[in-house]
Amino acid sequence: MNTLITITVLALVVLYLGLFKAKTLLLPVTIGGLLVALTNALLQWNQNNQPVFKGMMQYDNYAVAFSALAISSTILILLLSKNYFEKISEHVAEYYTIILFSLAGIVVMVSYHNLSMLFIGIEIMSVSLYILAGIKKNDFRSNEAALKYFLMGAFSTGFLLFGIALIYGSVFSFDLEVIKSYVSLNPTKISPLFYSGILLMLVGLLFKVGAAPFHFWTPDVYDGSPTIITAYMSTVVKTAGFAAFLRLFWFCFAPLQPFWMPVILIITIVTLFVGNITALYQQSFKRMLAYSSISHAGYMLFAIVALGGNSGYGIFIYALAYSAATIIAFATLMLLQNQTGSDSFDSFNGLAKRNPFLAFVLTISMLSLAGIPLTAGFIGKFVMFSNALSQYHIWLVVLAVVNAVIGIFYYLRVVVAMYFKPIDRSEVPVPAYFKIVLLVSLAVTIAVGVYPALVTNLI
Amino acid sequence: MDLLFILFFPLVVALVALINKNYSKESALIGSAITFFYTAALIAKFHPDSSTQFLVNYPWMYAFGINFKAGVDGINILLILLTNALIPLIILASYRHKYGNPSAFYALVLFMQTGLLIVFTALDGFLFYVGWEAALIPVYFICALWGGENRIRVNLKFFVYTIFGSLIMLIAIVYLYLQTPTHTFDIAAFYNLTLSGTEQSWIFLAFFLAFAIKMPIFPFHTWQPDTYTEAPTAGTMLLSGIMLKMGTYGAIRWLIPVAPLGFVQWGKWALVLAIIGIVYASIIAFRQKDIKRLIAYSSIAHVGLIAAGIFSWNVESLQGALIQMLNHGINVFGLFFVADIIIRRLKTRNLDELGGIAKNAPKFAIGFLIVLLGTVALPITNGFIGEFLLLLGVYQYNIWAAAVAGLTIILGAVYMLRMYQKAMFGPSNELTLKFTDLDGTERSIFMVVGALIIIIGIYPQPLLHLSDAAVTNLVQTVNAKIQSVKF
Fold this sequence. Notes:
heterodimer, A: 459 residues, mainly alpha, 78% helix, 0% strand, B: 487 residues
């Protein structure tokens, strides 16, 4: 709980700092505050916390794990933002504040114990993101991204809310505990309203995590938003979406698995193919990452298709691996955009000769996204695949393997460009902040890949 | 601890070579030589019985029943020897090449050595898979960074082929893991499983796909000639000398003992594919003008015979397969070294442009001849004992299979001697007149290879003795398992 309060207060403090024009303080204060919030979150680990605020929220281990992951990723991404917002506009403090508000929404999303809190959390996060997508006010594509995201997002929120209402109509409560006992006490006499509610909520949540066929907003929004916001959306926001998704289905709807599982199974397969095959044809690295994020959403959906004791852990380790690798990719992209102004694959040409370290880190990140052993990405995929196999979804895993192979084509394209294409530019300067972020992400990727017990022993 | 040293010392050497940029090849050579001598000492301590020795077993991912479990037994000891003996030779053979960024090159070779050794010693399914991929990544970069013109397209094909096979194998491994009562990746638990015939069929096919791509067996071989041709010499030597043994070794250690009923059902088809590969590759090899491609196809033929021996599954054929893996590694290294010398001096791979080298370079001609005789399995060379045992084993399984597989000896002699004749005899032309004879390093490599070929050819008994008990035990265990289900 202290985490949520810390982040909210921090956001207000940063806003006031902006009022007093203390620009140099913004980043240190934000990072420091987030570190306090992170410590607060970690202190709650294994405290066996019960629901608080009349059952509104429950800060259990699941919530601790995901909010810690979200806060750490945000810290890394904010470190990349030094001097980034200044280039965009005068109102730097507001951007930090909005990011912090959306993070507060995320903490609510991962710790809700009541459907109204789920809705509030998602809205706090989404409204902040609609603004963030459009912070480049004079840029046409940024505006397009914001508008598109807002319209589609509002629409999907409607679905979610409608679903919640229908569930309330059959259970007469928003409380997860009550819904759970409603489902488990008489699984044969469940009202049709409840089933419709599940389907409508499914639409809303699948939209938020960017799964096909609700993915059409993803490439345009990711592509149009400022790169640092894209990094934030494709790591922190996506993880939070899955955490909220899984929390609901794991806790409440698990007994009804025969009803919703076929739907999610088909959506998973479609998501994998749509994401991977479209990513294959992209010329822009940023757009490729957008589509690859769709395909990774497909892999993460495995945890929900094969719902079981390991699901939460599976999503966590997958999200950890995916976030670390994606942060590296976006950090590199930001550096190259500074130099060339373009985000196509060509700007990576000959990077290995110019910046061997940067090229090495990005190679590891690409291998991790492709799921090659000794990187964290492999452990993530391994956990997902073994969960699915343990419930005999063998064909799903075979299709996923085909997709993993397709993925190799476009991830290796970057590596090929870096190592085998001619050099046509000078060395890219890498600021110290970037070096820290790259090194931390690299260390996470390799450490989890080589010795996963660092994380697995926590279960 | 002995084994841990051998497994991870190459990684340490790789780091040293990376840091020590000016002396990277010297550090790589000295480091790999230390690994080799340590391995030789280990083999001297090895008791030739069917037990697993020098066992290391540490918990790795406790929650998933994954252990770092590795050991040495009669099945893998020759492959450990092969790996650690060939790596110093390969490094020495690369000495004359001016590779850009040599420290990265040698570090990748040594990193791959660790991956290969993990594959050969792993007694845990997960560890085996990790080693399998850890050997692939460095060789991809070696071939793609220092290879020929088409290297990017060709290596992508190679990489995608192998990754696809290995991911299918991963599904099979995870499936087996989920069937074990205690949820463990331990190979002993995999051996003890009693799965239905259908399950074993699928497991067999999944493993077979991965191993068949790696060996490669017809019709999964299409990546191989291109990759061998485009790769730098060291890459080709690593691929053909050591890496393809991952496939044949995997078949002996994992494929057949884990899914014996699948083997009963599909083994004969695997044998047929292997034999088709022998004849097919030999005929294509005969038509090749490119030396590297010729050796690549000859390698498919020779590995086809090893695979045929494995799928015949009796003591003789397995003994033959194990010793022939060692011999093939040595011989194919020698052949690619010969090709490398010719290419480096004359800048051509085309046999039609060669001729008359023997007159100008008599020492080279002798070295080439010894390697060639080993490859065509002339008696008193190493190839003979291996192919003899293999054919004996295949004969016991099926006489017709042995008759067709035996063609490899005749066809092999034909295309190899044709290559020798075209390159070495006949009139010298402008190009080959300038051919200079071997220098000191090259001579010493030929001396080592030649000595190995002849010593193993004359007195293979110590090597056969190392694997004898383990092979007998393995064959009996698997056959007992098959019998118990059949009746």
